[in-house]
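Feature request, filed as a ticket because there's no other form

It would be nice if the structure record came with a short human-readable summary line next to the tokens. Right now we just get the raw output. Example of a typical job, pasted below so the devs can see what we mean:
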Amino acid sequence: MAVLLAGARGLGDRWRPGAADLVRGAAVVYMATTGVVYGLLLVGYTEQLDTNVVWADTVVHRVMPIVLVADWLIAPPRTRLTVRRALLWLWYPLLFVVYSLLRGPLAGWYPYPFLDPGQAGGVAAVAAYCVGITLFIVLMTWATVTIGNTQRQFRQAGPSRPGAPGDIEQMV
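Raw output as currently delivered:
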């Protein structure tokens, strides 16, 4: 994601307007999902997931999800996003799951316990986890677009009266 964002910044005007906002929004959804899935399903699997570097585990799974959501709230997208376009954000997690489920039996290894039918309680349990996480991602996509557009409109409208919160330029 960092490479995509850096590349988007480097392209400047040559990139389609709103593309950087779409990439940023995807990063928000992916990191929020990372934080929630980690908190609900993966805490306690430190050894198995090889996440025993405590500071890195904390930064990736706890701090960065909060930072990216806060960044989205503080610095909303510059262009109006649509849920229809944002649903493109589903391609990455869906491809990851399909790849993991196809590769898992061949390699004898799954990246997460909830994707391994042997650990999750069978194929039906894996399917339930995948459906639940997908629904969460769809909900997060809708929320990210809606909140981003609302924050963007609020920012564009400016303060309602002189000295109102958000009118920092006049105070300095």
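Something like this underneath would help us a lot:
The chain has one domain: 2-158.
Confidence is low (pLDDT under 50) at residues 167-172.
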